[in-house]
Amino acid sequence: RAPTSSAPTRTSLEVLAQVFGYDAFRGDQAEIIETVVAGGDALVLMPTGGGKSLCYQIPALVRPGTGVVISPLIALMQDQVDALSTLGVRAGFLNSTQDGLERRRVEAAFLAGELDLLYLAPERLRVPSTLDLLDRGEIALFAIDEAHCVAQWGHDFRPDYLRLAVLHEHWPAVPRIALTATATEATHAEIAERLQLRDARHFVASFDRPNIQYRIVAKDNPRAQLLELLRAEHPGDAGIVYCLSRASVEQTARYLSDHQIPALPYHAGLDSRVRAANQARFLREDGLVMVATIAFGMGIDKPDVRFVAHLDLPKSVEGYYQETGRAGRDGLPATAWLAYGLQDVVQQRRMIDTSDGDAAHRRRLGAHLDAMLALCETVECRRVQLLAYFRQSSLPCGNCDTCLAPPQTWDGTIPAQKLLSTVARLDRERDQRYGAGHLVDILLGKPTPRITQLQHASLSVFGIGTELSDTEWRGVARQLLAQGLLAVDADGYGTLRLTEESAGVLRGTRSVLLRREAPRPARAARTRTA
Ligand code: ADP
Ligand code: ZN
Fold this sequence. Notes:
Catalytic activity: Couples ATP hydrolysis with the unwinding of duplex DNA by translocating in the 3'-5' direction
Organism: Pengzhenrongella sicca
Cofactor: Mg(2+); Zn(2+)
Number of helices: 21
Strand content: 5-15%
Shape: elongated
Bound molecules: adenosine-5'-diphosphate, zinc ion
Strand order of the largest sheet: 3-4-2-5-6-1-7
Number of strands: 17
EC number: 5.6.2.4
Structural class: alpha/beta
Family: Belongs to the helicase family. RecQ subfamily.
């Protein structure tokens, strides 16, 4: 510990200056710290980069005893402890990666009152001896980091987090502070409930990340689109590219490497040593692109991530916010770019329909997807829409695609009627399955082998849609799906079906407003010979 700590009690502001070298608190930090120092509970919702760590580190240094931090981020514990040590803060951790000797050394330090902070993996609380250990030492506070892991429907759910209510039951007098960057009211309420934080003060920071530019584009050739973006706007920058599947992670990483962009893969199917090595390189080297599934990123503290790109649609607005939030933690301009298309909607609807769990669970997943689609299809400011999801208001931001180039809308009622009538026609042949591609071929009047085989050229709707291109029709179908005017079957083919809502469009009593897609600029490189 720094020599200054010999003073009997230091104020929070002194610790901030002397240990961390900062001269002022940010946002709610002062009030949060004051609450916990005084022995009260706190629930802190603050975006990534907002400064959550100091909210428990400073009270741990000001109060007598050790601050016990519950964190699921085992891979980062060593780094966190090392970083604290360089500041003169005495910290240790207990998790499954240690050998018995190392663990006993940390336990002894804790019991001797020689630790300011003790990081604990949640599964440690499964072991009775851990509770025993904590009983024998002096505890300044409990900090529950990544507290949204207790939310059962959430994307980061950890069953061991449900166990954390024991902290309150066992040590009712020890203050607790739960922290998360997830912000919806549902998660908020679930955290308070499951962690028994009934009397906690709630601190909800603004979730706006003004330096992040939000952009959502229609997916056409996603890897080529990504490459264009990186070459034009982010040459040499570090960034994260999210893909849904492991296979697509591998392919995309290879594609970027083949095009002289240094990229590494990260997904749960890789050997844990490879994963750890790739993560370490990403953190330490400059200008690397991490291509990953959503398994990557929680707790990653790399300030200069200049872009986060999604090649597939995130499952929820919360997930999207968390993942894009890893960009620009240093406050400098960063890009959040998402490419999404018809196939994303079809695939995700199908995944929901075939997912485990009861009807209520599927409804919840469906509602999450709908909110994500609404964000993708909005013609208004993305930031306004994103913050509205977290019940925060904002003015149009001037730093998102819809603000920078307001999208045109067009009356898509007639194309919608054409597409829906085609679906209705095919729907009469109940035993047949058709993906969107076949539907579009019929509209365009393309004599494909499948159309010949099924004699679909004789349908009255064959060739009624030549006014739009293949891509435009896919855009129409995608937007109709997003608006609930079309549905996807859980049949494995992504067969499109009418919904109750479709009827009004077909009868002509309901009009359909569509977002005009910006055409991708044609490039010489894309022209094919032969
Ligand atoms: P979070 O955990 O909320 O994502 P961190 O606790 O990692 O955020 O803080 C993000 C960055 O901001 C860190 O580099 C941290 O040192 C810095 N920081 C936090 N609070 C302050 C402050 N009051 N003054 C200056 N820098 C701060
Ligand atoms: Zn905007």
